[in-house]
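Q: Sequence in, structure out?
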Amino acid sequence: MEKMKILVPTDFSELSFKAFEAAGHFARVFDGKIVPFHAYIPLSEMDSFYYSGVGLSGNVDYTQVEKTVETRLLEVASDHVDERLLDKPLLGVGNPAHAVSEAAEDCGLIVLTTHGRTGFSRFLMGSVAEKVLRLTHTPVLVVEEKSVIKPIERILVTTDFSDNSTKAFPFAAQIASKTGAEIHLINILMREGFDTDTVIAADVKLREKELGEMKDNWFSDVKDKVQTRVIVSFKSVHEAIVHENSASPYDLVVISTIGRTGLDYLMLGSTAASVVRHVTSPVLSINPRRIEK
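A: Exactly. Output:
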């Protein structure tokens, strides 16, 4: 993650600007550069209406639109982060999710918000943010409307003991190493109504041992910063994670987008998708397929 480029898509809504603040933290920590990005959808005579807030009026050609939008990108980015952290802005054309994914191929991180100009519901599939999460192989930091952007001191990392879940560990370890943050590595044990206390206790003991081995194998450089815990819950896995974060909000949640089931990130009911939709902390989503490339 060192000296990485950080792509920050914006639709020029106030909420989308919040991503620049979060990107600024990562740029400072990893000596990175922020690349402001906007996906431009040609709307012919509607261009001047859609971009009325960025300085266009009347009938304009695409060249003028691109120059004006690039200028506006730098302006809004400069309003929210130190100009020394900024790189040259990029402008994509066409479907926003596809344009973001293509632009991010040379970047180490995408930072975006879960609401924007389209006003999509966080409970419905098909949002630009969720499409980006499904399409891209680049790690994505999702910032929610209620997310509090602050220095990273506590990181929540989840695992279901699958190989896919471990692909997120190096990213969490790097962040902890650079920031000095604590890592809370947790596993959720869903308790069924018929499970006895003896069975649960034995299962917890086995899982605690496996978490300890993961700590030694994956977090050796920051081992003194890692706490492990098995959480026994009658709730679903994603509900238990959301509850854990609500009880004591973390500065960052790190999760793999594909777990033990091998289901794609946006399969209805998947843990990763549900966590991103419901936690208020910033969530760093890692697609294991990127690691395999």
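The chain is about 40% helix and 20% strand.
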